[in-house]
Amino acid sequence: MLKPMLKRRADKLSGGERKMLAIARVLMLDPKVLILDEPTANLAPQLADRLLREQVSGLGALGKAVLLVEQRARAALEIAAYTSVLVSGSIRMEGQPGELLDRQDFEELFLGAATSLSSASGSEANKV
Asked: Based on the domain organization, do 10 and 73 belong to the same domain?
């Protein structure tokens, strides 16, 4: 995705293009494990989908271990091999994405509607 931008200076790239450049720079080091904390944040929806489907899923195909923290849960589930759902910092559900989506309580838990799992303060952060 960066090839058309080879002749442009980094300071002339958009925010999404800079994010892709940052990921590319890290990949040049050939890491075995990558931790991607919301790589699609502030990206246009089309670019975010492309980044997840083509780039992040491609890393797994190359034998890289990828820990993905992502608010776009459905998109993350489409490319994940294994998923953990955190609620208020605790793992409340984990397994194969298809298995989790089939659970009746998945949406309720993920959207924070489960009253028995609510935190005392009422604020919950859910990530996949």
From this structure: yes
Same domain, residue pair 15 and 54: yes
Beta bridge partners of 84: 94
60 and 108 in a single domain? The answer is no
Handedness of CA 117, 119, 122, 128 (dihedral sign): negative
State the residue range of the domain holding 22.
Answer: 1-79
Kindly report the pTM of this predicted structure. Answer: 0.71
Q: Is pLDDT larger for residue 111 or for residue 39?
A: 39
Asked whether the beta carbons of 35 and 60 are under 8 A apart, the reply is no
Query: How much of the chain exceeds pLDDT 90, in percent?
Result: 20
Regarding beta strands 90-95 and 83-87, do their DSSP bridges make them parallel or antiparallel, or are they unpaired?
antiparallel
Residue 106 near residue 94 (C-beta atoms within 8 A):
no
